[in-house]
């Protein structure tokens, strides 16, 4: 109730929306939380996109997190946005390589995974 009251007082506050979305997700109502953030996307800027990307990351949807942050111009990205985008991209690359490792030419995927593992941590 407190977060809903705060959101009513500040409907454009991305961080109140994120807190409420996370609370809803903990109650098993993640879809409602996601809708709450999507509603703000139409009028929100980089901060709203970042909040939505954090919620997507919380839910294990890293490709969506990256897709939410990529439209933000590089000059407007905060260091935290840059780190989340790097994590999301790295996760997607690992997933693609792991899928290739399970395929008919598995050694190529395995070699990609080894190359990824040899890189410095992007975060």
Give the overall pLDDT as a whole number: 92
Task: Report the total helices.
Answer: 7
Q: Which geometry do the CA atoms define?
A: elongated
The termini sit apart by 36 Å
Structural class: mainly alpha
Radius of gyration: 17 Å
The string of secondary-structure elements, in order, is HHHHHHH
Describe, in plain words, how this protein is organized in 3D.
- With 123 residues, this protein is an all-alpha fold.
- Helices cover 73% and strands 0% of the residues.
- It starts with a helix and ends in a 5-residue tail after the last helix.
Quick rundown:
With 123 residues, this protein is mainly alpha-helical. It is built from seven helices and no strands.
Question: How do the strands and helices of this protein lay out in sequence?
Answer:
Elements: H1 2-9, H2 14-26, H3 30-41, H4 46-58, H5 62-69, H6 79-101, H7 106-118
Helix pairs in contact: 1-2, 2-3, 2-4, 3-4, 4-5, 5-6, 6-7
Question: What distinguishing features does this structure have?
Answer:
single chain, 123 residues, mainly alpha, 7 helices
